[in-house]
Specification:
InterPro entries: Glutaredoxin-like, Glutaredoxin-like_YDR286C, Thioredoxin-like_sf
Largest sheet: 4 strands, mixed
Protein name: Glutaredoxin family protein
Pfam family, one: Glrx-like
Radius of gyration: 18 Å
Oligomer: single chain
Structural class: alpha+beta
Number of helices: 5
CATH topology: Glutaredoxin
Organism: Streptomyces spongiae
Helix content: 40-55%
């Protein structure tokens, strides 16, 4: 085999890890009585349910660190611990981030 073809087949560990599909975790940070949070919940429940992705909810009023960081942006959606969006959740954008 030509060295050109062999070189193309080599991948670093980082590239291989990126190619492997590790399970995602979506986190909805919300507060009680928030209609935008209810809308976000519905979108996340639908997308994660269809894709088989785990998700959780956290109450910003019960966690001082989350409160300090996100209070003015509620609802906030994290994907794998990184902020994905806030206020309004776009179904297509979330789906793309998870696939």
């Amino acid at each position: 085999m030509s060295p050109l073809f062999r070189r193309a087949d080599r991948r670093t560990d980082k590239q291989t890890a990126h190619v492997a599909h590790e399970p995602h975790l979506v986190t909805l940070i919300r507060k009680p009585g928030c209609h935008l949070c209810d809308d976000a919940h519905a979108v996340i429940e639908k997308v994660c349910g269809e894709l088989g992705v785990a998700w959780e909810e956290k109450d910003v009023t019960q966690d001082e660190e989350l409160y300090q960081k996100y209070w003015e942006q509620i609802p906030v959606v994290l994907v794998d611990g990184e902020q994905h969006t806030f206020w309004r959740v776009n179904e297509q954008r979330l789906r793309k981030a998870l696939t």
